[in-house]
Structure formats: C-alpha cells, structure tokens
Amino acid sequence: MRIAQIAPLAERCPPSLYGGTERIVSYLTEELVRQGHEVTLFASGDSITHAALVSSCDVALRLGVRMRDPLPYYMMMLDEVAARAGDFDILHFHIDMMHYPLMRQVPAGFVTTLHGRLDLPDISPFYAHFPNFPLVSVSTAQRSPMPAVNWAGTVLHGIPGALLAYRAKPAGGYLAFLGRISPEKRPDHAIAIAAKAGLPLKIAAKIDEVDRAYWESTIQPLLAAYPQAEYIGEINEHEKAEFLGNASALLFPIAWPEPFGLVMIEAMACGTPVIAFDCGSVCEVVDPGVTGYIVRTVEEAVAAVRKIPDLPRAAVRSAFEARFTVERMARDYVRIYRQLSLSDTSDAPRDAPDELVLA
C-alpha cells in the first residue's frame, strides 16, 4: 500500500529523549517499510527513517530555539499533505484534530489515531461535530468519555522486539519510575512506595515548564527527605534499556485516565514487571500475576513490591512478545487501512472494520 504517516512536530521521529507519540509513529513507519509498503513520513526534518521524509521544519519544535509558535509549521505540513493526497491509498494522522476541516476536501482515505486523553471538556463537542471521520483508539478505556463516533478499531501499541534487551537477572536492585514529572503521573507516590518498601528508587523523567512549580514544591522536598530516591533526568533509548532492564520493577503510580502507557510495555520487553495503579488502560496492558500487579493504593503497591520475586522475568518477556510487538501493531493497522482505503472519503458514514481484539 501507499501510506502517509503524519506525525506531531514537537519531537523528531524517533525522539532523541521523551516523546511517546512520535516514538510509536516511528516504530510503525519503519515496520510498514520493512513489510514492503511504500511509506511517506511527514515529520520534522531531523527525523531518521527509511521512509520518504517530508518536513515543514528543520528540527523538532521542542528543540528549535527560534520556533515559538507551532501553528505555522503544522499549516505548512498540512498544505503539503493535501497537495500530495492523491499519491496515497491512506493518510494516517497522529496530530489529534488540526487536519479535520481540511479532510472534507481531500480525495483520499484517511484515519486518525488518538494518542491522548479524551475526557477534557472541549474535546467532546469537537468530535460530535465530526462524528463520521474514522478514529483509532490505543485502548478501550481511552474511548469511554467520547460521544458516538466512527471507531475503526482499537490498536494497542507495539515496539520492536530487539529494541530493549531482556535481562534475566537485573543488576540494579532498585525500583524505576520513567516518564514525566507531573501531578497526574504521581512521582510522589513512587517515592512513597519506595520509602515504605525500603528500596532505592531511580526517577528518569523530563520536567515541562508547566510542571516546574510541582517539581519544586512537591518532588524536590520528597527527594531530600528520602535520599535513596534519585532523580537522573531525561534518558535516551540506549540509557532506557539499561535503566529498565536493571530495575527490579517499574512503578507506574498514575492518577489519570492513561490512554496507553508505553513505558509499561518497554519495561516488559526487558523482563521487568510493572506495578501500576488501576487507571485508564492499565488493566488492558498488565496481566496480574504474570507481567506485574495492578493496585489501588500505596500500601497495596508496597505489598506488590514484596511479591515481585514471585514473577519469572522470562514470563514477562514472553507476554510482551505475544501481545506488544511492532509487527502485530503494523498488521492491525494494515487491516484498517485496507478497509478504509476502499471507503468514500467524504463526511458521509463509513463502514468501519471489525473491532480488533488483541490477545
């Protein structure tokens, strides 16, 4: 198939540091190329890909020191997508909603994967205005706040099997937290769990400016009070393999409707179990007693930490290979592409593919 992937511009594909959506777009793009499809990636100019690359900005917007307003770069990218739309069987958007008015006029099949939370008050009116445009969710839980829309399927994320090496015997003896320093990610819970369990904690996370006050007022004092908790900052892909692979467990103590939680399957790829709070997609990703434990309180998480030695790391890795590889993710998307590329691309109702049920 001739496939266009339209990525966010905040980070390159793949990101050099933090960036979940761009990372998934990159993995999907490279796997589609490997499977023999003709793929064009619309992304920042510093992206690294085997697909044809079309860029509207030289570097990712988060890293561009002269780039203050992202809107002009997205407008240029969408203009290029519209000009080339006839070259593709399917356009796959990963940029939420900016392209919607444009797609009423473009003669091509298209689908949009929603990567973020859908429970914010301004989202439902928008999608109610475009009820027939085909959407993909990244978990079933992600869908729950949405009005009636044209769901084309649910595709759980996948990553390359060789990306993160399996570690049968972690060398670190610590608990890990990987993600963002933000109230919804609850790094304060991670520190509390580690302290009550009497174990070291390593925190690898970025700090957005919007969360700077939370870092200074809440997390820094907790780190000072529990010296065995160490903040190491953002890490790259190579560092991630070492960081997750040498951890006894990943702590995922979230307090928000997580759409997917990529770090959970990254940990599983290393054989590292996950202790996650029961929010959002967690129950669709973690298999309790196999790949980790699902908990509701700090006390339950501490009890789960003590049971981590009962989980064979080989079984964690096997569960990852069965459910969360990039090959499976790409196959699921191609099923959706093949049906939608045959559909009418106006704002008339479309026949969605059968819902994807993943093992």
From TrEMBL:
GO molecular function ontology, one term from the record: glycosyltransferase activity
UniProt source species: Cupriavidus pampae
Keyword vocabulary terms for this entry: Glycosyltransferase, Transferase
Domain of life where this protein originates: Bacteria
InterPro entries named among the record's database cross-references: Glyco_trans_1, Glyco_trans_4-like_N, Glycosyltransferase_grp1
Domain named Glycosyltransferase subfamily 4-like N-terminal: residues: 18-125
Gene field: bshA
Protein name: N-acetyl-alpha-D-glucosaminyl L-malate synthase
SUPFAM superfamilies given in the database record: UDP-Glycosyltransferase/glycogen phosphorylase
UniProt-listed Pfam families: Glyco_transf_4, Glycos_transf_1
EC class of the enzyme, as a word: transferase
Domain Glycosyl transferase family per the UniProt entry, residue ranges: 174-308
EC number assigned by the record: 2.4.1.-
Annotated Gene3D superfamilies: Glycogen Phosphorylase B (3.40.50.2000)
